[in-house]
Design a protein that fits this description.
By secondary structure, this protein is an alpha/beta fold. The protein folds into 2 domains: 28-114, Leucine Dehydrogenase, chain A, domain 1 (Rossmann fold), CATH 3.40.50.10860; 140-263, NAD(P)-binding Rossmann-like Domain (Rossmann fold, 3-Layer(aba) Sandwich). The chain is built from 11 helices and 11 strands. The strands form 3 sheets. Strands 1-11-8-7-5-6 form a 6-stranded parallel sheet. Strands 3-2-4 form a 3-stranded parallel sheet. The protein has a two-stranded antiparallel sheet with strand order 9-10. A hairpin with a 5-residue loop joins strand 9 and strand 10. Helix 1 (8-27) crosses helix 11. The chain binds 5,10-Methenyltetrahydrofolate. 5,10-Methenyltetrahydrofolate binds at residues 44-45, 47-48, 51, 95-97, 119, 140-141, 169, 231, 258-261, 263-264, 266-267. Keywords: Amino-acid biosynthesis, Histidine biosynthesis, Hydrolase, Methionine biosynthesis, Multifunctional enzyme, NADP, One-carbon metabolism, Oxidoreductase, Purine biosynthesis.
Length: 294
Amino acid sequence: MGEIIKGKPVADSITEELIQEVELLSVRGITPKLAIVRVGARGDDLAYEKGALTKCKKVGIETQVVELAADITQDDFIAKLQELNNDASVNGMLIFRPLPQQLDESVIKYIISPEKDVDCFSPVNVGKMTEGDETGFPPCTPTAVMEILKFYDVDVKGKDVTVVGASMVVGKPVSILLLNEFATVTTCHIFTKDSAKMTKEADVVVVGVGVPRLVKENWVREGAVVIDVGINVDKDGNMCGDTDFDNIVDKAAMITPVPGGVGSVTTSILAKHVIKACKQQNHVNSKEIEAVMN
Ligand SMILES: Nc1nc(=O)c2c([nH]1)NC[C@@H]1CN(c3ccc(C(=O)N[C@@H](CCC(=O)O)C(=O)O)cc3)C=[N+]21
């Protein structure tokens, strides 16, 4: 039986640290604030929003949900983002994606202020992530994957890691973050000839495609580490990941469950990024705050 590596201990350890950071900021009269920008009311946006609001409340981060009509025009949407960019009380912004058809992401991604872009929408943050510049904000879910690997002492340096999926939300950024840690990364996508062949050879498999139970037992080698980023609802209405968990769990050395795996760490990273943004905007570093306390 492989080890089921849960997200909760990882999330709890991050949350504990963040609660302390918020307390230290409050001594200076600073309260971090996140604005969530939601267009319409898609189910998976609402699911993420609920988790994010709960986490922020627990940590002591203020929140503002900006709910916009599903048919908002591009000009009105851009005006709203600029208003939030200019609102000094807002430290971080999370814009749910994908945006509806009439909003052109290739234009909008340049509007959000990179300093407030806590989920890596801005090309500035994509660039910083790619360079390994730690002043930026890599996206929350891929960062959660890296935090889980670190927490459970999975050192990816020199390991063969296969990522299934190449989206800008999961596959591509997680591939970059893994490469930054000197993993040998293979990224599979819809034009990959044989994804199973690539995953079978990997020491670590990361899957984020949104296809329920895509990765089967025979896609994974004995003793592999499997990180499942998928959050799906199957035809029976149960939450499931992108891996056939029940049949892989005995073969893998470690595997993340769904729910209770990567998804449960994502909101902690979001909160961490809001606090980081707040500190950067107020020109404070942790050491400085500790000095004030002592
Ligand atoms: N810019 C952007 N970044 C995103 O990461 C993003 C997005 N837009 N748009 C919507 C999708 C969907 N999504 C979910 C996240 C958590 C749950 C979820 O259910 N989370 C549970 C935990 C699930 C678990 O335990 O695995 C919770 O937070 O309590 C669902 C959906 C993020 N997305």
